[in-house]
Specification:
It contains 8 helices and 8 strands. It is α/β, with parallel strands linked by helices.
């Protein structure tokens, strides 16, 4: 998202996140990749549900945009208060996929509409594996799958492919590990392989929370934010 905001021509961005490891990791990664000015870097406690003070400070700073990391109940509270404060009309909001997904749409409602986020997968990705997964999930559960469900499905398909390659001989751990490293399966994410440190190399997509003609909410696929993304630490990893 840091690179995407740079490409969008944003010059001054305000950064906020939850005060724990995931909040630090996501927020600092966005800061690292953003080439403009960091207006502020603010972290709020995990039990804080009232953001009025922070939103007052944010309004006064007048940034071009704000990047936030909030999940679960805090994501609901933050988006609603951001909208109630009228900030969504003047300061665009950028985040990561977990801030708003099918598990949170009902609680967030219109407060999530227009939110831009980056994610490693989207329901609208045009590949056979993804179309099959999304259709089956919708048929069984009556809603779009979340990113959590998508990654679990991918993990199962990876394991299944590896076990098939070694003809079920899972006690041969070296062979199973070698088969897993090949990632010889059809990922619903699109292009997918493992890097030398066994983290995924894949495209990262940009999406916007929107409504379909029938009123249901979904993540509208806007395009590729970054292609063939490698985590920045693999160069320091000694694994071969």
């Amino acid at each position: 998202m840091g690179q995407y905001m740079t490409k969008k021509g944003l010059k001054r961005v305000y950064f906020m996140g939850m005060d724990y490891q995931a909040g630090w990791d996501h927020t600092k990664a966005a800061i690292r990749e953003f080439k403009g000015t960091k207006v502020a870097e603010v972290y709020t406690p995990l039990n804080q549900m009232d953001f009025s003070a922070e939103l007052t400070q944010l309004r006064a700073a007048k940034p071009d945009a704000v990047f936030v990391f909030y999940v679960g109940p805090l994501a609901v509270a933050f988006l609603k208060q951001y909208t109630q404060a009228g900030l969504h009309k003047t300061i665009p909001l950028y985040s990561m996929g977990a801030i708003s997904d099918p598990l949170l749409y009902k609680a967030q409602g219109d407060a999530a509409i227009g939110l831009i986020s980056t994610e490693g997968w989207n329901t609208e990705l045009d590949n056979p594996a993804n179309k099959k997964f999304v259709a089956a999930f919708r048929k069984k559960y009556g809603r779009d799958p979340s990113g959590y469900a998508a990654r679990q499905y991918d993990a199962v398909m990876l394991l299944d492919a590896a076990v098939r390659q070694i003809k079920g001989k899972v006690n041969d751990k070296a062979a199973l590990r070698a088969a897993l490293r090949k990632a010889d399966f059809q990922s619903i994410r699109g292009k997918f392989r493992f890097n030398t440190n066994q983290y995924p190399v894949q495209d990262i997509y940009v999406q916007e929370v929107a409504r379909r003609p029938d009123g249901t909410m979904y993540q509208k696929l806007l395009g590729v934010a970054m292609a063939d993304v490698k985590d920045p630490d693999y160069v320091n990893c000694k694994m071969k």
